[in-house]
Amino acid sequence: MERQVATLAELIEGSACTVALTGAGISVPSGIPDFRTPGTGLWADVDPMEVAHIDVFERDPARFWSYYRPRFQTLGDKRPNRAHEALAELERRGLLEGVITQNIDRLHRAGGSENVVEVHGSIETSSCRRCATSFELEQVEGLFDERGVAVCSSCGGAVKPDVVLFGELLPESAVARGRDLAERAELMVCIGSSLIVHPVAGLPQLTLEHGGRLAIVTKGATPYDDDAELKLGGEVEDELTALLAALG
Fold first, then answer.
1. pLDDT for the residue 126
2. Is 160 helix (H, G, I), strand (E, B) or coil?
3. What are the helix and strand counts (H, E) for the chain?
């Protein structure tokens, strides 16, 4: 592992533009389950199409919130881990251009990263579908009515988390920013992602097509393992902490 970490440090030092692409695996050490691990993943015991689809939100908001309300409460208490903090430190040192994340948990920002592209949105806010009033995460709990549905305190409209649900398109501005970073990256470091959920899973290919290189820090196989300069499969906190030490 030490040799591979040293190689990753050399790749970063030799790159004029390094970008991180992160998935659920970077937040597991913070106590947030990933999606697909049998028995513990968020989708292990529930069909996401039955609770996290935009059609469910519109047709049966009580069912939707029966899933999302406890998740909001759980995520609100989570804190960044050493992996999030390591990426923020790389950015402060001028070694990381930005972070593209599939996560909605806001932990990159909480960990100190500034240039963060949240392509699936964030739990940071929820918005009224009728009047567009925005509510901070801490305010949402006070919006629930007797049905267990969050309604706007201004107009009574339906309040939806500012996250991308199944059946919704990704926000154009976030996609454009992510593509720009991917195309400019001389090195993309993919962390804690299986790299199978599109369209984000296509960003490493953009980096390759524009002459950049890939490094992968995640458990389990990805479609890009054969294209990467190296693959680190240990705990993300340990790997990124060791990377900072190798960079001096």
1. 97
2. strand
3. 10, 9
96, 118, 226, 30: CA torsion to nearest 10: 80
What DSSP state is assigned to residue 166? Answer: B
Measuring CA to CA, which residue among 17, 128, 80 is closest to residue 240?
80
Task: Say which residues have a Cβ less than 8 Å from residue 70's Cβ, sequence separation at least 6.
Answer: none
Low-confidence ranges of the chain (pLDDT < 70): 1, 34-46, 48
> In which element (H, E) is residue 241 found?
helix 236-247
Give me the percent of the chain exceeding a pLDDT of 90.
Answer: 84
Closest by CA position to 200, among listed 27, 26, 23: 23
What pLDDT is attached to residue 49?
73
The length of the chain is 248
Domains of the chain: 1-32+79-120+169-248 (3.40.50.1220), 33-77+121-163 (3.30.1600.10)
Catalytic residues: 120
Interatomic CA distance for residues 220 and 218, integer angstroms: 6
Through-space distance between the first and last CA atoms of the chain, rounded to whole angstroms: 17
137-177, pLDDT tens digit by residue? 999 999 999 999 999 999 999 999 999 999 999 999 999 99
Angle between helices 2-13 and 236-247 (to 10 degrees): 60
Q: 187-191 and 213-217: which strand pairing?
A: parallel
